[in-house]
Amino acid sequence: MQFRKSKIKLIVLLTIVTSSAFKAQSQTNSEITLYTKFDSIVGKENLGLNNGPLALNPYKTIGDNNMFLKNNKYTIGNLVYDGQSYFNAKLKYDIYKDQLILNPPEQPEHIGIGLIQDKTDSFSIYGINFIKITKSQTALSDFTSGYYEMIKIGKKFNLFIKHHKDILKEINEEGVYYSFHEKYQYYIEYNNKFYEINNKASIVKIFPENKKNINVFYQKNRNLSTTDYKQFINSLMISIYDFSINNSK
User: Fold this and answer.
1) Helices (H), the chain
2) Where are the domains of the chain?
3) How far apart are CA 226 and CA 186, in angstroms?
4) What's the pLDDT tens digit per position in 155-188?
5) pTM of the model
6) Which residues share a beta bridge with 82?
7) DSSP secondary-structure letter at 191?
């Protein structure tokens, strides 16, 4: 009974400090401590986070090539799952299947649970923030629901990056193996509307008043556009936002 009373008190307190939006990077130490204390009292093995199918990896690869973000190792991250915030969870992100995988507490690292995407609102690993976006949230006919890296550019201006890995089956003297090759799709949310950006023309179409500034940026950053296109797009969006802000004054 004492356990039930303590749990109820904590749930009430958590309700006060919990926000439905993903703000893990801005949480205070006291809030993180509170969540951790709640997890320890309830018992981590009983948390809803531990419910999901066993994650399997049937693909044999060579060297460091893999289907995951960064590598095939778990890293410490934060997430919002089924409306509840969790901190310091052991996670890895399967880009090929678009699946977030949890290594449950006190379990060896070959045990992984595939978290249900419909219940996963957002997560953060390697300092990268991801949120779940559904097709119904956009007016784009070919948009795919799933996890998207989110980079906040400014007020009502966000850059979203879809990480994806293509799979290639190969055969050598050692047998069959697979290789994965990462690709990106870029979207922006501007004034509450989603746009796909895939070339300069698509960007100019969204920001016609910035056409000259966009052309200058492309000319000055040709090398970056070929060596690190992701950083190139990020920097371009910041430039467009700064240009718009300065011209509105």
Assistant:
1) 2-17, 29-42, 200-206, 211-220, 222-227, 229-247
2) 2-44+53-198, 199-249
3) 16
4) 999 999 999 999 999 998 889 999 999 999 999 9
5) 0.81
6) none
7) T
